[in-house]
Amino acid sequence: MTTAYHPQTNGLTERFNKTLADMLAMYVDVEQKTWDRILPSVTFAYNTARQDTTEPIEYTAPDFVARLVTQAEESCQLARIRTLEEQEKDRRRYNSRHRVVLYQPGDLVWIYIPVHKVGRSEKLLKKYFGLYQVLRKLSDVTYQVHDFDPTSRRRKSKDIVHVLRMKPYYDPDLQAHFNDSVASDDRRFGESTPSTGRNDYTGPTTRSRSKALKQTR
User: Fold this and answer.
1) 3-state secondary structure 28-55
2) Which of 71, 117, 92, 94 is nearest to 164 (CA)?
3) Up-side HSE of residue 26: CA atoms within 13 Å toward CB?
4) For residue range 34-59, what is the model confidence (pLDDT) as tens digits?
């Protein structure tokens, strides 16, 4: 129990009150009307100061910092594991539908180049350009190509493209010759295109066409 006019009975509190008053006196204005505004700053300064009795700074949170560091490390490890799992899922999903296409040096290819023209529909624009010739394979998914024009003497520009942007080129003359050979073999062996029993589609049945069909019946 404390008694009036005897501060020694509550020395810790009274000592703090004196220290607080001394600190406020250093920053308060002449009229002593700003002490309440500087009180939070003075209190923070006192709490973070080193005490001779307790020595360590009382106003610290070492446990919180340690827990925060541990939680951050665990979150990073968990995020890394989840990332690897999702990458593996994407890899399996992609490989299940992906068809491997390999090109050899000297192969002719088309290259996908996005084109945007004002006033033109992008869906109707040409998407593949060429011809380009494969120079070398840089990795499983990248090739070095250059524009192919045997009649030109200018320096050919080189480019590195992803395999997904490449499409193999087929010579129209060789394709026509192949189609003729297939048709010739079919005629030789008496093979023909099997009939489906349905009439070939000749377009939509308009009112005029319907009227003409009725007249012919």
Assistant:
1) CCCCCCCHHHHHHHHHHHHHCCCCCCCC
2) 94
3) 9
4) 889 999 999 888 887 777 666 666 55
* Maximum alpha-carbon separation in the chain: 129
- Record the pTM: 0.42
Q: Report d(CA 131, CA 136) in Å as an integer.
A: 16
Looking up tokens 């100061």 gives 49
φ and ψ of 60, to 5 deg: -135, 165
Give the chain's radius of gyration (CA, Å). 43
Cβ atoms < 10 Å from Cβ of 161: 19
Provide CB contacts within 8 A for 164, sequence distance 6+: 112, 141
Span 152-178, pLDDT tens digits: 777 778 889 998 889 998 877 665 555
Q: Report the residue count for the chain.
A: 217
Does residue 8 sit in helix, strand or coil? helix
Q: Which residues lie closer than 8 Å to 3 by C-beta, 6 or more apart? A: 9
